[in-house]
Amino acid sequence: MTLPGRADGQDAITDVDGLRVGHARVAGPGALSGTTVVLAPEGGAVAAVDVRGGGPGTRETDALDPRNVVRRIDAVVLTGGSAYGLDSASGVTAWLAERHRGVRVGPDPSHVVPVVPAACLFDLGRGGDFAARPGAATGRAAAEAADASGDRAPVATGAVGAGTGAVVGGLRGGVGTASTVLASGVTVGALVVVNAVGSAVDPSTGVPYGSYFEDGRPVFPDPEVHEAARRRLAEARTTSAPPPLNTTLAVVATDAPLTRAQARKVAGTAHDGIARAVRPAHLMNDGDTVFALATGAREPAGEPDPLALNEILAAGADLVTRAIVRALLAAPAGPRGPGGDFPSYRELYGPGADPRSL
Prior knowledge:
By secondary structure, the protein is α+β, with helices and mostly antiparallel strands. The chain has helices at residues 82-85, 88-98, 136-149, 223-239, 260-277, 309-330, 345-349, and strands at residues 20-25, 34-39, 46-51, 58-59, 75-79, 103-104, 112-113, 118-120, 167-168, 171-172, 174-181, 187-195, 247-254, 289-294, 336-337, 340-341. The strands form five sheets. The protein has a five-stranded mixed β-sheet. It has a five-stranded mixed β-sheet with strand order 3-14-13-12-11, with helices on one face. The two termini are 14 Å apart. The relative contact order is 0.21.
């Protein structure tokens, strides 16, 4: 992976002008779940989706099929709480409707139907309370946080929003993000929530899989540190029941003017980024889902090049890989309680582990 971060931005999905991100967490001592909203600019964004996992939980993804009538969407919701958590999208829908944002279906400005596709991950009971999961209020809070964040705002990563209770290969997972500006001037960004059955760490070295795709040689942990980490993780796994359902969710966005068919190609290719950073991926236990957004804010110079999409496709996959590594490294020390024992990567390998990947 050779893409640089965006020098004049946050190295986050919000470097795509007009996009905003907000997180909200479920309250309560037994809660370890939440919701993340990617808010499109006024007027919406072209969108598509590609689902590869065998156990997905989604809402309104059929509306994104290029054969169907929906042209633009207003927000994407990523949420914990498994299928229960999809109710958080209704809170986002209501928030948008109050602001007359959505597909106009009548003569009055209030006659709108917001289009809010959503996907969920499994984190039920991670905090000890199976019933602590996102609902409409959580979604509304995340939408409000996104709206209040402002343009080109930094994005909180780690155990926040939909990544609050995320776990990857027995380690604490969470939210990660990254962006780049291509030679053409097009901006591409990605946001992920990694919560996978597979591992994000090479068991033979302790190096995050995604780090092998960065420039230069990966930073290999000291063998003694790695051996101690393996013992600690094995101990944690004996006290934590294997989660029956997991998922890696992602949103890849660009300011390029894409058709819905092109956006769907971006979503599909971005799954390569998951496969590089999480092994194995796309299992029957997973609900791996990638959304693609195109704001179209950047006008192409000169005649359109039919192969110009290639650099966006490659960048989307690379950024998803980078964002997964960042999610892993940003995760705080995990809880040890009734919901399980989930150490973080930095807890096992030290605060300075693989700093080049941040």
